[in-house]
Specification:
Strand order of the largest sheet: 7-8-9-10-12-11
Number of domains: 2
Radius of gyration: 22 Å
Distance between the termini: 37 Å
Structural class: alpha+beta
Length: about 450
């Protein structure tokens, strides 16, 4: 069977297996005998052209944004990894074995895709915060991507190979412990489990630097809101508040583009919950701009919508293109990608609603005549930890925290006890995962150099 079909055939209903927890654990144990840890961590050198794959993926993007995208990607090995998830998915599916234990995965669980966000009660929470690649897939891909990102980021921070090796082993052990802990919780307790800033400060009670960083985030994150966006990204034009223009990243829309996105936004209003629909009736749209963000998604169609409330307050929402998973884009024409986009917005927000403990109440999806989008608040107490500011001890603590959070997110899937059954008896899980991550990191470095050479001669 074509391995690409394995990825595409996974649907939400594959998570709803009608057997109990103990039976699922036994299925995981049996899978460990059939496809042992040794097999899923056996590294096989890849045979493909990463440059062609990246170019194929970028053919679906806005050409004028590609130079800026390349500048962001090529800062270092870690940023390159962030911008090339499609390459790693291809390698994962075409080399070696997979457990074929389906859970909802992030699909791009590198270290920078964890961060802080607000709960409805305005508590500051920590968890996964990017779901563009979310899908039902193999749990080990998320863990492998997390560990490769830790390896590359640790190297950039100047840690020795020996120290990074130890950090990676502890990261894998933390994922295993996280799975064990999640397995011990009742379903509803697991569903409502969250990681707030107070718990993180307790987690880091012996780490002065981490506590210092967390306290700084706790102080500034509440100010990351629509008012801050308005202050930074808007100006008065003929007595009216408008977004600042800075092409190609921040580009004004022509009248036809503006109407298309406005119509999509009005369609979004109809898709959200009645409570949010009523809340949005207090606001009117006063400006829309195309504004690109991120690294991997930089180059896709992304917009900011400025709304003014009846009381004069502001709200800024982001309308972000929901393209098919980037791996799938490798084999699609632009027209085929557009045709598949119809359901992609729903895929992204479904992934977020399952994997993130509490999600943005404004989360929703919409579409134009040829593209699909999802909508969320542009800023809502969102923040992240700057990996370059961490010393070795704090960096290790952070990667372990991300691994535990990732395990908890995976365990929201009813099939997750199979993961517990699969890894619970393995004594070499962390060692094998670490060896694989280190081997693949070298492949990322080679791909980076090849793409850098291509850009130089392009």
């Amino acid at each position: 069977m074509d391995k690409s079909f394995i990825l595409k055939k996974f649907k939400i209903d594959k998570l709803c297996i009608k057997i109990d927890k103990n039976q699922l654990i036994k299925k995981g144990e049996k899978r460990a005998q059939q496809i042992p840890i040794d097999k899923i961590t056996e590294y096989h050198p890849v045979k493909r052209n990463a440059v062609k794959m990246i170019c194929a993926q970028e053919s679906h993007m806005i050409p004028q944004l590609l130079p800026l995208r390349h500048k962001r990607m090529m800062q270092n090995y870690f940023s390159f990894l962030r911008g090339t998830v499609e390459v790693m998915v291809y390698d994962f599916l075409h080399t070696g074995k997979q457990t074929n234990i389906p859970v909802m995965i992030c699909g791009d669980a590198h270290l920078n895709n964890f961060g802080f966000f607000a709960s409805p009660e305005r508590d500051l929470l920590f968890g996964l915060n990017d779901f563009d690649e979310a899908r039902v897939g193999n749990w080990e891909f998320d863990l492998k991507r997390l560990m490769v990102s830790a390896d590359l980021a640790g190297e950039i921070n100047g840690y020795s190979k020996h120290d990074v090796h130890k950090i990676l082993k502890k990261t894998a052990k933390s994922y295993k412990k996280g799975i064990k802990h999640a397995n011990s919780l009742q379903v509803l307790k697991r569903y409502y489990r969250s990681y707030n800033i107070k718990e993180l400060l307790e987690f880091a009670k012996s780490d002065k630097q981490m506590r210092k960083i967390l306290k700084k985030i706790a102080k500034k994150a509440p100010h990351h809101n629509s008012n801050q966006v308005v202050k930074k990204h808007t100006e008065m034009v003929n007595g009216e508040l408008r977004f600042k223009v800075d092409p190609p990243r921040a580009k004004k829309l022509n009248s036809q583009e503006y109407k298309k996105i406005l119509d999509a936004f009005n369609q979004y209003r109809k898709n959200v919950s009645p409570a949010i629909r009523v809340l949005l009736s207090n606001f009117k749209v006063i400006d829309i701009i195309r504004y690109s963000v991120g690294v991997g998604s930089f180059g896709t169609r992304c917009y900011l919508v400025l709304l003014k409330g009846k009381d004069g307050s502001n709200l800024v929402l982001q309308i972000k293109e929901a393209v098919p998973c980037k791996y799938e884009l490798l084999s699609m024409t632009v027209d085929e990608a557009k045709a598949q986009e119809a359901a992609e917005g729903k895929r992204v927000i479904t992934g977020q609603e399952i994997l993130q403990t509490f999600f943005d109440p404004f989360l929703g999806y919409t579409k134009t005549s040829d593209r699909c989008f999802y909508v969320r608040q542009f800023r809502d107490m969102k923040d992240s930890i700057d990996l370059t500011k961490l010393d070795k001890k704090s960096f290790g603590a952070y990667t372990r925290l991300c691994a535990v959070v990732l395990a908890a997110a995976h365990y929201q899937s009813p099939t997750a006890p199979m993961i517990y059954g699969y890894i619970k008896k393995s004594k070499k899980f962390s060692k094998k995962m670490t060896n694989w991550a280190e081997a693949y990191s070298e492949q990322v470095r080679q791909d980076y150099k090849a793409f850098k050479k291509y850009l130089h001669h392009a």
